[in-house]
Amino acid sequence: MEKKTEAEKQKKKKAGKKPPKPPRVPRAASLDACDQKLIQQISELAMLKRARTERMKALMKTKNSKPASSSSSFWALVITVLFCLVIVWQGIPATSSFFFFFFVFYSFIFYNS
Questions:
Q1: Residue 42 zone, left/alpha/beta (φ > 0; ψ -120 to 50; rest)
Q2: Which residues of 86-109 are buried (b: 16+ CB within 10 A; e: fewer)?
Q3: Which residue ranges are recorded for the region named Disordered (predicted)?
Q4: Quick one: CA torsion of 59, 64, 67, 73, rounded to 10 degrees?
């Protein structure tokens, strides 16, 4: 019985013992004032650059979400119609100008209704 009690005591001692902590990482040499100032300036520049890219992303997002203005699409439609009328007018001979004026009058009424 004495052996069992001694073995049990040894198990209890081993079970209650905490594992040792790992060794600490050695510290780097401390920087002098010039190096610290340089690191601070570099970090400030990085923050400014990050803020600028975030602003550009937000601007692009708002630009892409906006629909095209109706006034610009209206003027594009007017220019396209005038271009088509000029092409048609160039293609119609002078003898059949009646059909051209009929076409212009009909298109004017059709687009304004």
A1: alpha
A2: eeeeeeeeeeeeeebeeeeeeeee
A3: 1-29
A4: 100
Tens-digit pLDDT profile for residues 45-100: 999 999 999 999 999 988 887 766 666 788 888 899 999 888 877 776 655 556 66
End-to-end CA distance of the chain: 112
Which is nearest to 42 in space by CA: 57, 55, 31?
31
- Give CA–CA dist 74/68, Å, rounded: 11
- Identify the CA nearest to 100 among candidates 108, 111, 89, 90: 89
Note the helical H segments in 1-113.
Answer: 2-16, 33-65, 70-91, 97-112
Residue labelled with tokens 């610009």: 72
- Closest among 99, 80, 75 to 89, alpha carbons compared: 99
Q: Please tell me the distance from the alpha carbon of residue 1 to that of residue 41, in angstroms, as a whole number.
A: 73
